[in-house]
Amino acid sequence: MAERMRWGVIGAGGIADRRTLPVIGQTRNGELVVVMDVRDPGAIGAKYGVDSTDRLEGVLSREDVDAVYVASPVQVHAEQVIAAANAGKHVLCEKPLGRTVAEACSMVDACCAAGVLLREAYMLRHHGLHLEMQRLIREGAIGKPLFASVHWAFQYPKMEGAWRQVRELGGGGALADLGCHVFDLLHMLVGDIARVAMASATLVQDYEVEDLGTVLLEFEGGAQGAITTSFCISDAVMPATVSIFGSEGRIVARGSLTQTSDGTATIYRETDGEQHEIRYGRVDTYVRQIEAFADDVAQGTIATKESVPELLSSMKVLEASYRSAETGTFVFI
Ligand SMILES: NC(=O)c1ccc[n+]([C@@H]2O[C@H](COP(=O)([O-])OP(=O)(O)OC[C@H]3O[C@@H](n4cnc5c(N)ncnc54)[C@H](O)[C@@H]3O)[C@@H](O)[C@H]2O)c1
Fold first, then answer.
1. Which of the four CATH numbers 3.30.300.10, 3.40.50.2300, 3.40.50.1100, 3.40.50.720 does domain 5-122+287-303 have?
2. Mean pLDDT per 10-residue run, the chain (333 residues)?
3. N or C: less crowded end of the chain, CB within 10 Å?
4. What does the buried/exposed string (b/e) look like for 255-273 if buried means 16 or more CB atoms within 10 Å of the residue's CB?
């Protein structure tokens, strides 16, 4: 690899254009080389001053591309990630990895076989506030973590061509879109999830996927949680909140489930009976995500059998949740 990781971006509209493409060149170890999109790639290439193509091969056959960021709709992640791995490219793939665990497994297998790194793009892991929450919880600041509660909602009315509103394309609705982030974050803050039970419904919007999904969680070790994701309640009505309650205190973060690296959090400890604001270093989570990926590749990290459980963890919880909603029972991960 060159000194700076040379990136190709596959699916260069949407989130890539809003958050990642503008910052790749600002990272300390990344450089944007080429963009690929099925819709007007020339305009995106011109916007960022790089080459463009409407063919996957137009990225994967280039020797000056070390890694790809896959930010296309979920239904094409598997074929694109497998093709990228086969071409020897490291892959940062947007969440959720695929529509099913089987799809995600095929992607992980291809990356392990090719000896390239695969990461799912959970930028919220890099949020300064979440890292500080993780540090405080690990230090025992709230005692033993016992219950996690997360709300994340926005209004997402029916739109022509919206792949997230079709189960076959997005793999699910509000839970697939938002819940996978939440599972990853709770994995980081509390630990592995052992079993889930989901209530799923489409109550307001005129499409087939759920616009309201609530999952009851049990972590390994017995802590519990409840998360609600919604496409039919506005953020003003149900502000995004992450609360972790422990045997000696609580941490509550507001507004941190965001693309803007914002948010505030307070910690309350029974020992002093007072609530304090949590301070944290602000970083652009998309910059950090690109930098961390390139750092890992530079250190020789690749997808291996040992990394499979971590890579599949959120996808497994997601699929188990949907299975639970269908069967009306708890499902073990
Ligand atoms: N982490 C985040 O902050 C975040 C936010 C939004 C979306 N996402 C994820 O990013 C991915 C894309 O979501 P989005 O909201 O940007 O979708 P989008 O539909 O807004 O944009 C997707 C882009 O991919 C292009 N595209 C469609 N089919 C393609 C193909 N076969 N090959 C290449 N490009 C293709 C489209 O033309 C479009 O430019 C999803 O996995 C989604 O879950 C992540």
1. 3.40.50.720
2. 90 98 97 98 98 98 98 98 98 98 97 98 98 98 98 98 97 98 98 98 98 98 98 98 98 97 96 95 96 97 93 97 98 98
3. N
4. bbbeeebebebebbbeeee
